[in-house]
Structure prediction request, 403 residues.
Amino acid sequence: MGRIIKRSLNVLLSLSLIVITLSLCLTTTTAQTCKSFSSFSNNKIYSTCNDLPVLNSYLYWTYDSVAGTADIAFRATGVNPSSNWVAWALNPTGQGMIGAQSLVALQNSSALMTAYTSDVQGYSTTLSKSNLSFQVDNLTAMSRGNTEIIIMATIKVPKTTVNQVWQVGPVSGGAPGIHAQGTSPNLKSSATINFLSGQTTSSGSVAGSTQKNKNIHGVLNAISWGTLMPLGAIIARYLRVFKSADPAWFYLHITCQTSAYIIGVAGWGTGLKLGSESVGLVYHAHRNIGITLFCLATLQVFALLLRPKKDHKYRLYWNIYHHTIGYSVIILSVINIYKGFDILEPLKKWKTTYTGIIIALGALAIALEAFTWVVVLKRKKDGPAKHGQHGSNPYGARTQPMV
Prediction:
């Protein structure tokens, strides 16, 4: 019995030691900081380092205030050198991706780490090689095992306090692929760095706020210009075929288009705010179409005040104007929403969902158009005597136009 107890105690002691050892290892890994690492090539030592807030990354540097240069090392952990790329950048003109002067590292076709510079000028960038706005010397990259990539260089610092951006993404076809989107840490990887004092201030919340405003802008415009406007046009064109829907179709149409305009103006306002916050970055086509849409839609609203009575001699011209402007707004709206998708680059499901909505509205319009003509032909066949003046009117008992 004594031997059994002794062996049990030995087993428990061994298990306790294993648990303690694992706990220490996990604690060390979790508590890893930039100061706990010093295994740079040639035993290089940096005077300052910072733990970057996201993406398990660290920045090391030595700043020469006389020359205005900094020896830097960017270290990304938890990445696979054979399937990931990493980048670190300074952005002298903004806080985010646009304008970032980047140092990029990835493994080439010979399984060797390579580093190059890339000037990021758009969200659809492929991080192709290009010169930066400041001088970069001694640019190299190295990997450590299968979990780390390090970029080292000497840079001419554009200003003492500047915005920095860092990123990690997958390698696709031997080139940098698109990094994670949505609510991932990749959208919070920015901060302000002071090379002289060594302080960094995270600006991830600013980037997150900007992204949130972009999402709000996209949702508001997709609902208003891109969904309610076409739906209101469908109501006006087809519901009045049904005599029982008169005059309900008219008020539904007014409600739909008014709601679309109000929500659309809110979306247009967020677009103006985003534009004012993105100095030097202009999406000309998207902006110009947006301004045109706002002007045409506003003109439609004020045109209601000038609508002639049904029997007025100018009513025909007003109808032509009203329909032309209305359909132009719808066409431009759909075009501009897809341009917005290309700029925002959201998850694929959002673009697919909106495409499904447009296809559904288009299919509904085609079905109702066919039904309308069936009704028209039937009424013509029954003769004008039965239906009076409405026998030749494809849209029912009223000639009330779209508003």
